[in-house]
Amino acid sequence: MGLEFLPTHSRVLNMSDKQLLHLVIGGRVTDPRGVEFQDLKDIHTVGFYASFEEAEEAWRSWAQRTVDDAEMKYVIVHLHKLLEPKLP
After folding, report:
1. CA 36 to CA 28: how far, in whole Å?
2. Separation between Cα atoms, residue 88 and residue 73, nearest integer Å
3. DSSP 16-42
4. Is 84 helix (H, G, I), strand (E, B) or coil?
5. What span, in angstroms and rounded, lies between the C-alpha atoms of 84 and 88?
6. Using CA atoms, how far apart are residues 61 and 70, in angstroms rounded to an integer?
7. pLDDT tens digit string along 9-66?
């Protein structure tokens, strides 16, 4: 499976019309103040979401389940910023 390039659109979309891809992941971290995961093969992929609001809802759900475990951390990755860095 190779890299896929997203097509550019000929018309300009409003930010409310544009899909902003987010990824929610979690796992055990080496330091609760950081995001260095202890073992990459044990990262839990919660899912991919088209808006920050959807991603935040999923993140909040999983983060609350592990609130008493300081080594467990869930994060939201703004994939749209990696795929299209010129977006505001």
Report:
1. 9
2. 27
3. TTS---EEEEEEEBSSTTS--BS-GGG
4. coil
5. 9
6. 16
7. 333 444 556 788 999 999 999 999 999 999 999 999 999 999 999 999 999 999 999 9
